[in-house]
Amino acid sequence: MADPVSDKMAFRSPTPFSDFSGKSETEGVGNRWAGSVLGRVPVPLPAYYLSGIDVQRRDFEQRSLSFLNGEWRLGGWWYYYIYALIIKEPVGTVLLAVLAIALYPIQRSGRGMDELIVFSPGAAILLAVSSQTGFNHHVRYVMPALPFFYILMGRLVGLKPTRRIAIISTAALCVSIGSSLLIFPHSLSYFSILVGGPKYGNRHLANSNTDWGQDLLYLKEWLDAHPRYRPIHLAYDLPLIDPRMVGIEYERVPVGPVAGIASDQPDLLGPLPGIYIVSVNQISRMGGSYAYFDRFTPVDRIGYTMNVYVISNDQANAVRKQLGLPAVSAAK
Questions:
Q1: Number of domains comprising the chain
Q2: pLDDT for 38-97, tens place per residue?
Q3: Which of 34, 47, 243, 330 is 20 to 30 Å from 278 by CA-CA measure?
Q4: What is the pTM of this model?
Q5: Rounded mean pLDDT of the chain?
C-alpha cells in the first residue's frame, strides 16, 4: 500500500481509497475500503490533508478524559463544540450568526441556494467533529468551519433590512470588535460575558481553550518587575516548554491531600506558606492536586492564565485545618 504522506502519493493524480493506508484502521483488518465500491473512488483531497484527518480520527478512537462546565469524564459530549463556540466567540458574533440564520428566507435576489452551498461546508465540518466523542479538548478542531459562517453573517449587509435589524447588526458588530480589543493581546484566553469573561473561562473549558503557555513571557516580565517575590513555586501548564528556558527559576508547588500522597507525610502536602504562581488549568485539573488554591484569593494575575498567591503561615494553617491536615510551623 502507498504511504499516505510520501512525496510520490502527495503530488500524483488522485489515488483510490483502497490504496490509502490510514492510521485509524483497526489493527489486523487492513484497509477498510479494500474490495468495496468506495475503494475504487479517487480520494478527493490531497494526501497530506487526508492523512491529517486520519491521524486525528485515530486520536479520537483512543478516548481520553475531557472537561466541560466543571465536569470531567472519559469521552466527550456531542454538543461540546457548539457550547464552546458560543462562549469563546463574542456575544455580538453569536448574535450576528443567529440573525443571519433567522433571516435566511429573506432574499434580495433569490440566491438562497448559493448561500446554502457556502453554509453547507461549515455545517458539515461542525457536525463531523461533533460526532467524534472519543474526547473533547480543543476548539481549534472546528475552526475550519468558521470562515463559512462568517461569510453567512456577511449576507446581512446585502439585505434590505428594517431600521431595527440595521441597528441590531451594527451594535452586534461593534460589541464583537470592542470585546475582542479589550483583552488584546491575550486573545487566546478570550471568553464571552455569557460566562463572566476570561477570568472565569477555566470553569467551563480547559486545555488550549484556556491556557496553552501563552503568558510565559508575561510571567518573566512580571517577575522582573517584582524582584521581592522570591523564591517562587510554579505550576506551569505546558510541559513542552521549561520556564527555565526564559530564565525563570522556580520550585514545585506542593500537591494537596486529594492527590494520593502517602498520609504519613502530611507536612509535605499543600497548602504551605510561600509565593505561588499557578496555572488556572492546573487548579481545575482532574485529581484536584492544586484545587486547594480555590480557597485562597490571588493577589495578582498574569494575563488570564496564571494566578499569583502569597500565602502566610496563618492562612496556610487555616486552610490546612479545613482539609484535615496538621498545622505547620512558621519556620516550615
A1: 3
A2: 666 777 667 677 777 777 777 777 778 899 998 999 989 999 999 999 999 999 999 998
A3: 330
A4: 0.80
A5: 83
Distance CA 112, CA 116 (A): 6
User: Is residue 238 in a domain?
Assistant: yes
CA–CA separation, 123 and 115 (whole Å): 12
What's residue 9's pLDDT?
46
Which cell numbers hold the place of 30? 487492513
Residue bearing the bigger pLDDT, 69 or 28: 69
- Angle made by CA atoms 173, 174, 180, in degrees to the nearest 5: 95
Answer yes or no: do 162 and 124 share one domain: yes
Q: What are phi and psi of 226, to 5 degrees?
A: -130, 70
Clarify whether residues 81 and 168 are in a common domain.
yes
Residue with cell 429573506: 106
Q: How far is Cα 63 from Cα 132, in angstroms, rounded to an integer?
A: 10
Buried b (16+ CB within 10 A) or exposed e, 62-93: eeebbbbeeeeeeebbeebbebbbbbbbbbbb
What the block records as the C-alpha cell of 234 is 510554579
Of 46, 61, 76, the residue at which a domain comes to its end is 61
CA 136 – CA 99 distance, rounded (Å): 28
